[in-house]
Every structure is written in C-alpha cells, then in structure tokens.
Amino acid sequence: MSAAHEARQRILLSPPDVGPREEELVVEAVRSGWIAPLGPMVDAFEQAMAERTGRRHAVALSSGTAALHLALLEAGAGPRTVVIVPTMTFAATANAVVYTGAEPFFVDCDKETGNLHPELLERALRELRAADETVAAVIPVDLLGRCADYTALLPICERFGVTVVSDAAESFGSSHAGRPAGSFGSTAALSFNGNKVMTTSGGGMLLTDDTATADRVRYLSTQARQPAVHYEHTEVGYNYRLSNLLAAVGIAQLERLDEMIGRRRALRRQYAELLGSVSGARAFQHPGDESDNCWLTAVVIDPAEAGWSADDLRSTLDHADIESRPLWKPMHRQPVFAHARTLLTGAADGLFATGLTLPSGSSLSAAQVDRVISAISAFLDRR
Ligand SMILES: Cc1ncc(COP(=O)(O)O)c(C=O)c1O
C-alpha cells in the first residue's frame, strides 16, 4: 500500500494482520485438494492449539459463539436452568446461553479489570441455591484480553459444584498465575474473528481436558451424524466445524502470535505513557498487564477531573478518521436482555460511561500509530 493511500485510510480499532505466510499456507491448502470442511490443516491447527494452551483436546469450530454454545450444552444448560454471565461482555456470551434455552443471569464486574467480581458471583450462587434453582454454568469472560481472576473464581464454583465455561474469546496468548488463557474451566472458548489477536477470518475453538466432551463436541458440530453408511441422526446437531482453508490461516497466525502480541503491547505502552500524566485519565487494566495479550487498549476518563469525556475524545478521533469505541455496553442495558435477572453494583455502567477503546491492531504501521498519537496529543493540548 502506498504511503499516500495509507495516510488517507480510516484507522480501525483492530483490523486483521495477515501477510505472505498466511497466503502461502492457504495456497498450500487449496492445492492439497482439502477444500471441504476438515482436513490435515484442521488436525495440525488443533494439535498446535492444544499444545499452546496445555489442553488435552482442541476442537476447531466456525466461531467462538459456536464454541460457547456447545460448551454450554455439554454443561447441561437448557430450559429451567440458569447460567451466570458477567454483564460486562460482548453479546455473544449471553446469546449462546439463550440458544440453549437457559436463562442468563447478569453479575457485575470489578471496576479495575472489568472482569466478573468474585464476591458478587458467590452472592449470586448463594441466592440461587437458596431459591433451589439449577445453575448449569458460570462463564467468566477474559475482558479485552485480561484473564478473569480464576484464582478466586474457580474455588467458589467448585464449592457450589457449578461448571465453569471460560470465555477466552479475547484472551488467547494471555496467562493468569502462570497458566495460559484457555486452560481454565471444564471447557474454554476461543474466537478467531477478524478483530482478535489472531484470526482465521472467522472461527473459534473449544478447549477441554475431557475426552468424552471433546468427542461429543466433534459429533454435535458435524450435524450429530451417527456412524452409518447412510445419514442417520438420533439428535439435533449443528454445522459448526472449521474449514481446512481457514485452519491454514490459523496455523500461520499462530506462528506469528507472539510477535503480534508484542506489537499490541508496545502500543499499550505508548498510550499509557501519553495518558500517564493527564489528570482524570488512565489506561484501563494498566499497569499489571504483563501477562495480558493487550488485545484492546482502553482509556478510562473521569470527566469531572479531566474536564472532558470519553465521548469528546471519540468524536475528535472520528473527525480524524480514526475509529474508537466505548467499552462493551453492559448486557443488562441491552434492550434484548432488559428483563433478565441481575446482581449489580454500577461498576459496568461506570466503565461503559467512561471507557473508550483505542486503535490496538498489530498491523498498524508506524505512520498510522503516529497519526493516532498525534491526534490524541493535539486533543489533549487543546484541553
Ligand atoms: C467476549 C466474547 N465472547 C464471544 C465472542 C464470540 O466470538 P465469535 O465472533 O468468534 O463468534 C466474542 C467476539 O466476537 C467476544 O468478544
């Protein structure tokens, strides 16, 4: 791309970062003749991902949402059960609960990390147990790449005998207490959507140590086809497997993962430095992000102290053709979930009102990074 063209282009929040290696492996996959879903690239991708996350099994699927859906079905989510979901998440987490017929119950977050608040989770589980309700699962979400506080959350879930489905859609490459994201819970879901740290254009993965779960997920994700010469089905299945061509992209991306995370981390540092001395502003989840993949960097602004708001910065950047976006609008604020039960403190509402995610992609060129930093600096100078 020419420098002049790049200078005019809108800068996006987290565009895909693909290059010659991805192209090479996709061409190899096409030439191999394995065009239909599944094939040797899928097998190799699954094996590499299981190794990277320290899991016994990895099942490549068409999306992170599909991985959550099947993980929840395996946990026993269905009609007349409840699944606890942090209200601070992307809609896919809650949607997957609804697909199973279970009821999402939204719990608030820790205001420093945006992740599920352990004490609130415990309270919610206690209240639901007292009401004799069946909680099929808890879904901790690793917000913006920061692992949830599994050290605190897992013992609580264990005490209540509740299955943990980890939503690690945003956190591949991060770790918590020395263990990789995706290694927590009975199952974990990864996303390879185009905006994530690594992509297969669209795709996801279910990770587990349990062989029976992995076998069931492979079976359900291929239309629940029975082993017969004709098509035989004894239950409803899904068309959720990943194609061999997309797995080729995944293998190439995995080779480059650490380098791509390094670029996101460097950007996070630049933002943190720029905002470090600005009163009323702070880089969200920083410091303390040494083990994070820094998927998205967000700034949190206290308008009373700063004299300007997250939305002032957003609209200034938008005029400079730079994308930024408020933190996730909490699920309990979404019209589609307006009637859901909740346990709230106002923390997620606060983050939604004051948080803004900034361009964080590993494919941003030095000139694009300069453009963003200059636009923010100019905005701060005017204030
Ligand atoms: C927290 C979270 N959960 C689930 C998903 C769903 O993943 P996918 O888009 O691959 O279905 C995403 C991202 O899109 C996400 O950010």
Class by alpha and beta content? alpha/beta
User: Which band does the percent of strand residues land in?
Assistant: 5-15%
Could you name the CATH class of the largest domain?
Alpha Beta
Low-confidence stretches: none
Say which CATH homologous superfamily of the largest domain is assigned.
Answer: Type I PLP-dependent aspartate aminotransferase-like (Major domain)
Number of strands: 14
What's the CATH topology label of the largest domain?
Aspartate Aminotransferase, domain 2
What is the count of helical runs?
13
**What would CATH call the architecture of the largest domain?**
3-Layer(aba) Sandwich
Assign an overall shape.
globular
Organism: Blastococcus saxobsidens (strain DD2)
InterPro entries: DegT/StrS_aminotransferase, PyrdxlP-dep_Trfase, PyrdxlP-dep_Trfase_major, PyrdxlP-dep_Trfase_small
GO molecular function, one term: transaminase activity
EC number: 2.6.1.-
What does it look like?
By secondary structure, the chain is α/β, with parallel strands linked by helices. It has two domains: about 20-255, Aspartate Aminotransferase, domain 2 (3-Layer(aba) Sandwich); about 255-380, Aspartate Aminotransferase, domain 1, CATH 3.90.1150. It contains 13 helices and 14 strands. A hairpin with a 2-residue loop joins strand 6 and strand 7 (about 180). The longest helix is centred in the last third of the chain and has 33 residues, at about 245-275. It binds pyridoxal-5'-phosphate (PLP). Pyridoxal-5'-phosphate binds near residues 64, 89, 93 and 167.
